[in-house]
Design brief:
With about 220 residues, this protein is α+β, with helices and mostly antiparallel strands. The chain has a domain of about 150 residues: Roll (Pnp Oxidase, Chain A). The chain has five helices and ten strands; from the N terminus they run αββββαββαααββββ. Strands 1, 2, 3, 4, 5, 6, 7, 8, 9 and 10 form a ten-stranded antiparallel sheet that branches. Helix 4 crosses helix 5. The longest helix has 14 residues. It binds flavin mononucleotide. Flavin mononucleotide binds next to strand 2, strand 4 and helix 2.
């Protein structure tokens, strides 16, 4: 394996920033807002809102996949998906998730975990109404996470849906909607020189949040 393709030989120093428990925001939300704004403004970040969400099935086996973060506030972080997907089945068995956002050009990672709830239907519908029509139709056409015999079957399903809703607005499918992960722990990681990175964790302790530094 040459040096370019050998992951053991890949070695970048992390020098862009630092994170100090004396100056971090007083809430995880404010800190996430700051870092999200930095990531969104950085042309080197593709899809600042790409977030990996891990779930656990009834047998205790974890799965992780990328979704798009579509909102966050003091109640938690929101993403949208199919309520009959594999992840939705996991969340029925174990309504708890871990998520990670990584912005490599910023040398930053945010991890969080906590209980998961479905959004109120009105909130899902308001978001669905804002989506491009093509995405709305695909939400109807795709039985997410099921085995399909071919791409043609999916394209036929998309066409059938297009005919069904021709000339009218596309409502949110009943099996599609949002989830909110309400964090109990949020960790901000900033890469530092010589792998002596900064990790600051906000941890819910009863009713109050504890801010503490973790060893890298
Ligand atoms: C950049 C990116 C964004 C994605 N966004 C979403 C999303 O917002 N919602 C979603 O259900 N799947 C999204 N996916 C697809 C998921 O990663 C996954 O394939 C799908 O949700 C099925 O996962 P499951 O079978 O574990 O339920 C995205 C994938 C990528 C790579």
């Amino acid at each position: 394996m040459d040096a370019m393709s050998d992951p053991a030989a890949a070695r970048r120093g992390y020098l862009r920033g630092q994170l100090d428990e004396a100056i971090v925001s007083s809430t995880w939300l404010e800190h996430l807002q700051l870092w999200y704004a930095d990531a969104a403004a950085d042309p080197a970040v593709v899809e600042a809102n790409a977030m990996q969400v891990a779930t656990v099935d009834a047998a205790g086996h974890p799965s992780v996949r990328t979704v798009l973060l579509k909102g966050f506030d003091d109640r938690g972080v929101v993403f949208y998906t199919n309520y009959e997907s594999a992840k939705a089945r996991d969340l029925e068995a174990n309504p708890y998730a871990a998520a990670v956002l990584v912005w490599l050009s910023q040398e930053r990672q945010v991890r969080l975990s906590g209980p998961v709830t479905r959004l109120e239907r009105a909130e899902t519908e308001a978001y669905f109404d804002s989506r491009p029509r093509g995405s709305q139709l695909s939400a109807w056409a795709s039985p997410q996470s099921t085995v399909v015999p071919s791409r043609a079957v999916l394209e036929d399903a998309a066409q059938a849906v297009e005919q069904r809703f021709a000339g009218s607005d596309v409502p949110a499918p009943p099996n599609w909607g949002g989830y909110r992960v309400t964090p109990e722990v949020v960790e901000f990681w900033q890469g530092r020189a010589d792998r002596l990175h900064d990790r600051i964790r906000y941890r819910l302790d009863g009713d109050s949040w504890v801010i503490e530094r973790l060893a890298p």
